[in-house]
Amino acid sequence: MNRLLQRWLEREKPLFPKLRAIPLFRELNRRDLQAVVELIEMRKYSTGDVVFEQGALGDGIYVVLKGCVEVVQVDGKDGEKVLLAQSDSGSFFGETALLEDAPRTAAAVATEDTKLALFPRDALHLLAEQRPHLGVKIAIQLSRIVAERLRQTNHSLQVARDELAAKQKEDGGGES
Description:
alpha+beta, Jelly Rolls, four-stranded antiparallel sheet, 8 strands
C-alpha cells in the first residue's frame, strides 16, 4: 500500500467502523473492506441540499457518516411530501440503485450539514469483474437487505389493509 493511501486511511479511519456497521459490508474482511473504501466517493451537503431528486437515475448506495438525510416521496397529484425514512449517522439509503439503472422512487434531502460516503453502482461492477468473490459477497448481502425491506413493506401494507378493512366494517356497520 502506498504511503499516501496509508495516510488517507489513518485520517479516514472512522470510515471503516461506519461501513462495517451497515449490513452491506458487515461480512467483509479488512482487505475486502479496504478495496471498497478505495472506490467510495465522499460527499458533503449543507442543510436543505438535495442529495438526489425523485426520478433521477440512481447512482449507488449512500452511507451517512455525519448528519441526517430525509428520504421523501412526492405525490405527483398534489405535490404532498411523504417521509419514507430518516437516515442519520451510521445508516444508509438508496441501496436499490446498486441493482438497477432505474429512476429513484424518492428524493433525499440533507436536514443538517451532512457527510456521505457514496458506493457507486459502477464500483460494484468493477469489484465483480476484478474480485469476483468480493462482488458476490456484496451482492448476497444486498439481496438480503432488499429482501428484508420488502418483508417490512409487505408487513406495513398488510397492517394498512387490515386497518382499512376494519374502518370500512365499522363505517358500514353504523349505516344499517
